[in-house]
Inverse folding.
């Protein structure tokens, strides 16, 4: 009998424990640029796309936002999100194309928030969300092949090569 797999979202540290090399590749790709693109769901169900800084701190992927910003209100109402790494200044995409998706959980724990403020010195006030991942995807080139790597909680890293 095959082992059961979990499809419950995982924190960044859970993802990194499951797939350390892939997690490091994805994190480094996000850290190449400061601003990225966040997709949330509006009240009417349509998508909203906005800029965002991704913060990897304390073993988490953290998403900080201005108070009562539309994206924060979207996530409070419906926590589903996708975050696309900034593609960079040109069309070469030498470091691949990376996106993560999942649920954003607002952090309200005073001790965690105090630790974050001390470590990151963000402009206050702010909303802070922790990413719980349901999928991480990297698309890149290897010679003439398009390589798609994807991971979901409870499943091994999947790699597909296309000519």
């Amino acid at each position: 009998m095959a082992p059961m797999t979990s499809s419950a979202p995982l924190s960044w540290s859970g993802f990194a424990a499951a797939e350390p090399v892939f997690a490091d590749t994805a994190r480094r790709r996000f850290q190449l640029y400061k601003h990225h693109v966040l997709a949330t769901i509006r009240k009417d169900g349509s998508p909203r796309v906005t800029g965002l800084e991704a913060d990897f701190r304390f073993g988490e992927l953290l998403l900080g936002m201005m108070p009562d910003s539309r994206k924060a209100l979207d996530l409070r109402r419906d926590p589903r999100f996708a975050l696309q790494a900034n593609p960079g200044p040109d069309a070469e995409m030498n470091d691949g194309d990376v996106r993560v998706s999942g649920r954003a959980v607002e952090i309200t724990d005073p001790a965690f928030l105090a630790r974050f403020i001390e470590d990151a010195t963000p402009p206050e006030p702010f909303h802070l969300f922790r990413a719980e991942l349901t999928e991480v995807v990297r698309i890149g080139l290897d010679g003439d092949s398009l390589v798609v790597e994807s991971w979901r909680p409870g499943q091994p890293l999947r790699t597909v090569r296309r000519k």
The mean pLDDT is 93.
